[in-house]
Amino acid sequence: MQTLIVYMSSRGCAGKAALMIRDLLPDEVTVINLESDELPFLDSFHTLIIGGSIRIGNLQKRLKKFCEKNLDQLLKKRIGLYICCMYEGNKAREQLMENYPEPLVSHAVGIGIFGGELDFDKMNVFERMIIKDVIGITVNVSLFNEKAVRAFVKKITG
Ligand SMILES: Cc1cc2nc3c(=O)[nH]c(=O)nc-3n(C[C@H](O)[C@H](O)[C@H](O)COP(=O)(O)O)c2cc1C
Q: CATH for 2-117+144-157?
């Protein structure tokens, strides 16, 4: 069975999740960064995992468009959806629900909220201000949740 992971990542966290999922899956897995890689024919894949990260409440636009444009085809496949973000619990779940099409969320066999990472050295002044104001964090932190990634992969392999 062939699996495709399609992801986007602004600073690497959602990319790290994609590679971890690839390594945990027993299938043959193709990983695509939608920002830089060419998309293969979706017909070749039985399972699709789609993941990105949240900035100011939004998933990467191109990833959203990918889901909307291919929705009919995606609804015929085994689907996993994930996000990386700093919010936790209901707030994080809301961010996921608001950013993926509702039919896709309902159809997904796995939904993953993997936490996030903040590295102030990689941010510009504008981003630092947003983080302070929106999230209220001022130091580097990693909430990346490997346990959540493993639980997600278990649901996908079900
Ligand atoms: C400018 C900026 C805005 C962010 N906005 C949000 C947000 O609205 N909600 C949230 O939960 N996390 C937010 N985050 C945290 C990111 O989701 C987190 O850093 C994540 O690990 C980024 O993943 P990436 O490295 O794959 O882009 C924001 C981070 C930055 C730098």
A: 3.40.50.360
